[in-house]
Specification:
Order of helices and strands: EEHHHEEHHEHEE
Distance between the termini: 77 Å
CATH architecture of the largest domain: Orthogonal Bundle
Radius of gyration: 27 Å
Largest sheet: 3 strands, antiparallel
Helix content: 25-40%
Number of strands: 7
Oligomer: single chain
CATH class of the largest domain: Mainly Alpha
Number of helices: 6
Protein backbone atom coordinates (compact mmCIF):
# COMPACT_ATOMS: atom_id res chain seq x y z
CA UNK A 1 0.00 0.00 0.00
CA UNK A 2 1.44 3.32 -0.98
CA UNK A 3 1.08 6.56 0.91
CA UNK A 4 -1.12 9.14 -0.75
CA UNK A 5 -1.24 12.74 0.36
CA UNK A 6 -4.24 14.62 -0.92
CA UNK A 7 -3.32 17.90 -2.55
CA UNK A 8 -4.27 21.05 -0.76
CA UNK A 9 -7.48 22.19 -2.42
CA UNK A 10 -7.55 25.87 -3.30
CA UNK A 11 -11.02 27.03 -2.29
CA UNK A 12 -10.90 30.30 -4.20
CA UNK A 13 -8.38 32.12 -6.22
CA UNK A 14 -8.38 35.53 -7.84
CA UNK A 15 -8.83 35.54 -11.61
CA UNK A 16 -9.12 38.91 -13.33
CA UNK A 17 -9.97 40.57 -10.05
CA UNK A 18 -12.76 38.09 -9.14
CA UNK A 19 -12.76 35.22 -6.69
CA UNK A 20 -13.35 32.00 -8.61
CA UNK A 21 -14.31 28.83 -6.74
CA UNK A 22 -12.04 25.79 -7.33
CA UNK A 23 -10.72 27.08 -10.66
CA UNK A 24 -8.00 24.81 -11.96
CA UNK A 25 -8.51 22.07 -9.34
CA UNK A 26 -8.83 18.50 -10.62
CA UNK A 27 -9.85 15.69 -8.30
CA UNK A 28 -7.51 12.73 -7.97
CA UNK A 29 -10.09 10.34 -9.41
CA UNK A 30 -10.39 12.21 -12.69
CA UNK A 31 -9.54 9.84 -15.52
CA UNK A 32 -8.83 6.88 -13.22
CA UNK A 33 -10.80 3.74 -12.47
CA UNK A 34 -11.72 2.74 -8.95
CA UNK A 35 -9.15 -0.05 -9.16
CA UNK A 36 -6.36 2.38 -10.06
CA UNK A 37 -7.24 4.76 -7.27
CA UNK A 38 -8.45 2.54 -4.41
CA UNK A 39 -7.07 -0.90 -5.26
CA UNK A 40 -8.88 -4.12 -6.20
CA UNK A 41 -10.53 -4.99 -2.86
CA UNK A 42 -11.82 -1.52 -2.06
CA UNK A 43 -13.04 -1.02 -5.64
CA UNK A 44 -15.06 -4.24 -5.41
CA UNK A 45 -16.63 -3.07 -2.14
CA UNK A 46 -17.54 0.33 -3.61
CA UNK A 47 -19.10 -1.19 -6.74
CA UNK A 48 -21.12 -3.65 -4.62
CA UNK A 49 -22.34 -0.86 -2.33
CA UNK A 50 -23.43 1.24 -5.32
CA UNK A 51 -25.19 -1.73 -6.91
CA UNK A 52 -27.04 -2.61 -3.69
CA UNK A 53 -28.11 0.99 -3.20
CA UNK A 54 -29.86 0.99 -6.59
CA UNK A 55 -31.71 -2.31 -6.12
CA UNK A 56 -35.29 -2.50 -4.96
CA UNK A 57 -36.26 1.06 -5.78
CA UNK A 58 -39.64 1.26 -7.45
CA UNK A 59 -38.47 4.02 -9.75
CA UNK A 60 -35.40 2.21 -11.05
CA UNK A 61 -36.25 -1.47 -11.07
CA UNK A 62 -39.42 -2.45 -12.90
CA UNK A 63 -40.68 0.60 -14.81
CA UNK A 64 -44.04 0.75 -13.02
CA UNK A 65 -43.28 3.82 -10.93
CA UNK A 66 -45.61 6.16 -12.77
CA UNK A 67 -47.55 3.60 -14.75
CA UNK A 68 -50.69 4.59 -16.63
CA UNK A 69 -53.12 1.93 -17.75
CA UNK A 70 -53.72 2.03 -21.51
CA UNK A 71 -56.22 0.56 -23.93
CA UNK A 72 -55.61 -0.61 -27.50
CA UNK A 73 -58.52 -1.16 -29.92
CA UNK A 74 -58.11 -3.21 -33.09
CA UNK A 75 -59.96 -2.39 -36.34
CA UNK A 76 -62.07 -5.55 -35.81
CA UNK A 77 -63.36 -4.17 -32.52
CA UNK A 78 -61.33 -6.19 -30.04
CA UNK A 79 -59.87 -4.15 -27.24
CA UNK A 80 -57.05 -4.86 -24.85
CA UNK A 81 -56.27 -3.24 -21.52
CA UNK A 82 -52.70 -3.05 -20.24
CA UNK A 83 -51.65 -2.05 -16.73
CA UNK A 84 -48.94 0.20 -18.11
CA UNK A 85 -47.44 1.45 -21.34
CA UNK A 86 -44.31 -0.53 -20.51
CA UNK A 87 -46.33 -3.73 -20.19
CA UNK A 88 -48.09 -3.05 -23.51
CA UNK A 89 -44.79 -2.51 -25.27
CA UNK A 90 -43.29 -5.70 -23.82
CA UNK A 91 -46.30 -7.91 -24.63
CA UNK A 92 -46.75 -6.60 -28.17
CA UNK A 93 -43.03 -6.36 -28.94
CA UNK A 94 -43.12 -2.62 -29.55
CA UNK A 95 -40.84 0.12 -28.37
CA UNK A 96 -42.04 1.97 -25.27
CA UNK A 97 -41.55 5.36 -26.96
CA UNK A 98 -43.56 4.24 -29.99
CA UNK A 99 -46.54 3.26 -27.84
CA UNK A 100 -46.40 6.65 -26.14
CA UNK A 101 -46.39 8.35 -29.54
CA UNK A 102 -49.43 6.30 -30.57
CA UNK A 103 -51.29 7.36 -27.44
CA UNK A 104 -50.39 11.02 -27.89
CA UNK A 105 -51.37 10.85 -31.59
CA UNK A 106 -47.93 11.96 -32.79
CA UNK A 107 -47.62 8.82 -34.92
CA UNK A 108 -50.45 6.90 -36.59
CA UNK A 109 -50.14 3.12 -36.20
CA UNK A 110 -49.77 1.30 -39.53
CA UNK A 111 -51.93 -1.61 -38.34
CA UNK A 112 -54.94 0.64 -37.67
CA UNK A 113 -55.06 0.14 -33.91
CA UNK A 114 -56.29 2.99 -31.76
CA UNK A 115 -54.47 3.72 -28.51
CA UNK A 116 -55.81 5.53 -25.45
CA UNK A 117 -54.99 6.03 -21.81
CA UNK A 118 -57.58 4.29 -19.67
CA UNK A 119 -58.35 7.44 -17.70
CA UNK A 120 -59.24 9.21 -20.96
CA UNK A 121 -62.87 8.19 -21.53
CA UNK A 122 -62.90 8.79 -25.32
CA UNK A 123 -62.19 5.12 -26.00
CA UNK A 124 -65.43 4.07 -24.29
CA UNK A 125 -67.45 5.94 -26.94
CA UNK A 126 -65.76 3.93 -29.70
CA UNK A 127 -66.79 0.57 -28.27
CA UNK A 128 -70.35 -0.55 -28.91
CA UNK A 129 -70.91 -4.22 -28.05
CA UNK A 130 -67.33 -5.10 -28.95
CA UNK A 131 -67.27 -3.29 -32.31
CA UNK A 132 -65.92 0.09 -33.28
CA UNK A 133 -68.60 2.46 -34.46
Amino acid sequence: MELRLEPEIPVTRVVNGHNVFNKGYHHGLKGKTYEEYYGEERATEIRKRHSDALKGHKYWSNGNAHAFACVAITPEGKWFRFDSITQASQILGLNYATVRKYIKRRVKPTNGWLWFLEKDTNWIKLIDNGKIE
